[in-house]
Amino acid sequence: MKGNFFNILIFFVGLVGTITIGNSLYADLMQVFYGEQGSYWTHKDQPLSLKETGDDFQVLIGGEPLQEHLDGKTFFAADGELVPYPVVATDVTVRVNNWPDVKARILTKTTFTGFVFGVNVTLMLVGLVQTCLQRKKKAGNHPRA
């Protein structure tokens, strides 16, 4: 009787874990593969400088980095009256889509939740199979009339 209770307990622990962890895993995977990827941009009111984003990408103009053009004052823009002026680093700001970083964090989390989900499915199946085998064995011990 004690073994039967233990097997039923294992089954229900696995079932509850499969449902809860499985929903979390499903939600994370749906977000990664079908979620809105365009909502992770740097806010419009808080753009970043070129120096802050230098490790993420590099803008080349004529084969040279934009920063070199800005430092050498060889990059010009025109104001409202079409008067040219040299563009400086403070004139250039950048908005970055942070989706790759968010996606990497979610996928790292799904590695753990996927493992725990697998453990819970295993517990559920072991509990179910052991309970069924034990009941079958009990039914086999009773003589039939």
UniProtKB/TrEMBL annotation:
Keywords, comma-separated and alphabetical: Membrane, Transmembrane, Transmembrane helix
Residues passing through the membrane, by range: 5-26, 112-133
Protein name, UniProt field: DUF3592 domain-containing protein
